[in-house]
Amino acid sequence: MDRLAREELAASFPTADRDPPVFDADRRTVTLPVELKAAYSAYMDAEWFRLQLPGSSGAVGSAILKWSVAELVLGANPAVHLYSAGPAFASVVWHNGTRRDKAQHMVDRRWGSTMVLTEPDAGSDVGAGRTKAVLQDDGSWHIDGVKRFITSAEHDLTDNIVHLVLTARPVGVAGVGGPGTKGLSLYLVPKHHFDIDTGELTGSATAPS
Q: What CATH code is assigned to 111-205?
């Protein structure tokens, strides 16, 4: 890991200033520099991301080893560390989700992931979040609200990006919702919908506005 950090990961760090990501407003896509993509691939191919997984999902090592490796990656190229957070967020889905196979798809397919938390009027007061979640007839949820400052929210490193909406308040459902942080729930919003059983992308995409 020390060699990987000093060579493949650190090599692309200076290019971020000279060759930044490019945002296409019409297509709502972000293209990352080639050098960063190469560093990301080198890290993921080495499978150090498995240090962040729950044991039953193919994890190796210990917490001490995990954070030691993270220190090397962050020192060499912080962007690689942030973009490779998918497996770590898969652990959140594994421990809290109702369908653990979703987390396994995130790991096996190396999808990206984000934390969707901050709102314009609730930056430091999570319990003041206004985002609402309304249950639909098919069992899915309609999320209505404004989120911002979402790290790694869009990129072209992975086939899918799974957004974990950490602060949305369910409405119209008995026994859940209500004021403050205790009324908030966690929702999984993928960039592209996928087959729950196989993990295959269905071709349709979420369209936040």
A: 2.40.110.10
